[in-house]
Structure formats: C-alpha cells, structure tokens
Amino acid sequence: MSTPHEPVTDPQAGHSPESTGATPEPSATSPARGDDPLRGSRTSGVWVATVGLGLLLVLLVVFIAQNTDTTTVRFLALEGEAPVAVALLIATAAGILITASAGTLRILQLRRRTRRDLKRR
C-alpha cells in the first residue's frame, strides 16, 4: 500500500499519474534533482551573475563620479597625480592580484602534495 505522498501506479493500466498528465501530490521530502522543475540551471546562474555584475558596475560608476578630486600619489620613488577613485581602484586591484597569486601558489602546493601522496599508495 502506498502513502498519500507517493505517486500511485495503476498495475492494470501500467502507467503512473506523471504519464497521464495528472499532477502527483507533493512529496514530504525534497524531490530528487532531476524531478524538481524549479531547480537551478546554468542559464539561471549566468542570469544571476549578470545582474550582480550589473549592480556592481552601477555602484562603481557612482563611486568614480563622486570621487573625481585629484590627489598626489607617492610610492617609493614614484610620484604622480590621479583622481581619488582611480588611485583607490588601482590599490584594490593590486591587493586582489597579490591575494590571488598567494592563493594560487597555495593551491598548487596542495595539489602537488596530494599527487605525491597518491603515488605513494
């Protein structure tokens, strides 16, 4: 005997409610990934990323528009003038690159160690 949450297959007809177009009752547990019509997809991921990047771009434009005053930037023996927004964005990009390179080196180190450990087994 089936529970009220399971699709019932008619043994005489040989088909389930899904094949007849009938809507089965929702399951008490979460549906399997292939059964969920509202599951995420690559297209929805791209859409979310596009919207997120669009919002970030708008905020970046506002930041640049509000910080157009020129400032003197000194680094070691170098000196120059640049808008405040540009100086901050360059500093941010440099920080991101330094962090990414350190993270990349660590990932490569761990992969090398893992390969070496797997060969020993």
UniProtKB/TrEMBL annotation:
Q: What residue spans carry the region label Disordered?
A: 1-41
Q: Which GO terms describe its cellular component?
A: plasma membrane
Q: Does the keyword Transmembrane feature in the UniProt annotation?
A: yes
Q: Name one Pfam family in it.
A: LapA_dom
Where is this chain compositionally biased, Polar residues type? 17-30
Instruction: Provide the alphabetized UniProt keywords.
Output: Cell membrane, Membrane, Transmembrane, Transmembrane helix
Residue stretches spanning the membrane: 46-65, 85-108
Taking every annotated instance into account, which residue ranges of this chain make up the domain Lipopolysaccharide assembly protein A? 66-117
Q: What is this protein called?
A: Unannotated protein
